[in-house]
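[INFO] parsing input record for Superkiller viralicidic activity 2 2
[DEBUG] input buffer:
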Amino acid sequence: MVSAHTSAGKTVIAEYAIAKALRDKQRVIYTTPIKALSNQKYREFSEEFPEVGLLTGDATININASVLIMTTEILQSMLYRGSSIMREVGWVVFDEIHYMRDPERGVVWEESLVLLPDCVRFVFLSATTPNARQFAEWIAFLHAQPCHVVTTDTRPVPLRHYIYPLGGDGLYLVLNEGNYIEENFRKAMASFPKQKELGGPGTSRAKTGPMSKKTEDNVSKMVRLVKKHNLEPVIVFCFSRKECEIYALKMSECDFITPADKNVVEEVFKNAIGGLSPEDRCLPQVESVLPLLKKGIGIHHGGLLPILKETVEILFGEGLMKCLFATETFAMGLNMPARTVVFTSVRKYDGVNYRWITAGEYIQMSGRAGRRGKDASGTVILMVDETLTEQAGHAILQGKPAPLNSAFHITYNMLLNLLRVEEINPEYLMERSFCQFQNYSRLPELSEELNRLQTELSTTVLEEEKAVESYRKIQLCLQEIVEQQWRYIRRPEHIVSFLQPGRLVKIESEGDDYGWGVVINLKKRQRNDRVSALETFYVLDCLLATRPTADTAGADEAPSTSAPKSAEILPVRLDCVCGISAVRLMVPQDLRSPEARSLLYASIEKVKTKLGVADLPHLDPVRDMHITDAKFKEITEKARLFEQRLEAHPLHKSPRLPELLGAYERREAQRRRIDEVTRSLTQKVSLIQMDDLVGRKRVLRRLGFCNEHDVIELKGRVACEITSADELVLTELLFEGIFNRLSAEQVASLLSCFVFDERASEMPKLSAEMADALRTLQDIARRIARISRECHLPVDPDSYVDSFKPYLMDLVLSWAHGATFASVCAGTDLFEGTIIRCLRLLEELLRQMTNAARTIGNAVLEAKFSEAIEKIKRDIVFAASLYL
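[DEBUG] output buffer:
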């Protein structure tokens, strides 16, 4: 297990293992997580070793070679099918093993590792992983062989990390070879130019995402600064494809390379596209990229044509690209170091919302800076705006890499393959998974904690137990009724008009009390839900005493009473407001400095002192806010009655009440923790995900994929052939004869619903026949979702049906009918690279459907799927990789 920093030379250990295997006349399998990395490794190893083969979904080269490079999914498939190749394999190298924590694909690594025979030896190459030893212990347990851990403590090339405040006055060194310079961080955050807008810190682009002209100019300014100080080559990481292209075009007047280099770039480019048809060579994306390349500027993202991506990679590797605008996928595995790395933002959209980048993501991308043997140090520049708090910055810059945790989950493909193989069952795989191993490793710690808690509870004596318990029950009932009141008060029609700047509000979230804060700004937002219309919601910018660590008050730590409080402006959801005062303060124009924020926050205590009260006066919901709803009045009356009961309780005026309640709460917390630990122990002793396994077996029986004795049926054997899409829905479509009445082109069109996973702007216009086929697909998906729910699986029918996206159906139909790539691209706003990726996935799925039809014995359908492959497999979409 080699867990080392970027550029530490991990590949040398893999090469040694390969050389050792070849000496002993054994074969080696080298697995990678992505096809692009497989292609790159094939090219690299072909120069080192005499016999190298490649097996990916897109290419098969020299299958009898001694060194076989493949994706992990191919290895998994070979293991399930009992490939004869496995009998000759002496070593398996897993590159980028940290991919095992990927929520969707990580399970493939665990399956492969459990299924590999004990006689095979392993090399695992990984980025820095804090729990590398735990992983090695699992391998030793799994295969009864020692697993040595090799780690690095420092990078071969040290890094200097700078912060560049957007619109600020320069760079600030905040992390120098591991030493954090806190003072420089504070100077950087105080250097932002004054903004006229009230509450500026809460109104930045970082909250909402769209790129501003200001950011665009700052990126251009930063790249010019890098060029001026001869710090290129530079990789500029952007978090959207569109931004990569806009920034690159903005830099197009800059020239980074010599005339001689321009000639080399043009020659490489012409050779790269030489195999394309004249029509494909005239595609807008192909024509627009050469002028940039000839200036030493490159673009690299998933929407780019694969052939252009590879051209950029080759030019960058040869030192002919001095400025590369890339998305984070460029940092995943590809060995392409630079001298400088620039981040255009510290936030990214993760598919759900905008968030800070994690320490792991930052380490992965910043690790591209500093070329071993060329640079004395690497430079990393983080472009930030006002929203970056000290705590968030510290977490990104000095955070630890994410541990290698299991993402094991049961899939139908796994289950069906295990039912088909007699020697192994699902329980065996689950028992030996890394997930189960990690569960077992916590048992001693949990047992010790349980014993300690039980001892503490048995020695705890609570005075006036029954009286305290009854008082606490009334308190909890009153709290619930008050929360019902606040659900009415927080409705925008009631509360928004009172949330002016300066209004004092009380904030509470998930049990954490943030106390009183000052409203700085109120923002109206719209969320575009994919099912319903635009949804309006409100966000408060609020000055609070807290230690912010995330985006909303709901995720931050409650302020510690012992620690010094710092006042920060944070975005707060309306549902976090639990008190609204009659008091308003004057808010100064400029709140960027910590001193100004602390001064304003201190005014809250001054108001309390002036009024001579412990708490601030509240707005009355009926008298001041004019809430006249009958239901609200009923709830208010109920709250009044419970308040009377509380006041009449014998303990209410007892001076010992806080002490007694505190002791009671501590004991209840002990009991809750004992219950949690007991449940956790029970779960960790038993097999993980057993309920999921039982539920999935029920679904397979209900659908006829296996019988009541878990013996696989014909449907199940057919489903085993399908690994790249939803095997249940596709098998049901096959057996219901949907494909029999469609042409080869229409088959390809319908199957595109299984490979497209992005959003699209509008639904395609479908013929009556294709619309009917789509309805049948959706009906089958709805039926499977219903059966899954009946078998107690957490499947949402609407989400499941929506996962089959029809947005490419008309495009694929046109392509299958012979349309040019330029014409199909003109009819959509999707990137060319996205279309090619989907068509290649579709070809892979069609090959699997061909095998499925062969399993049934339907030669006509088999021929139809093969014909569909011929219809779509042409031109630039299936142009060979430049690495091959």
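[INFO] The radius of gyration is 31 Å.
[INFO] shutting down worker
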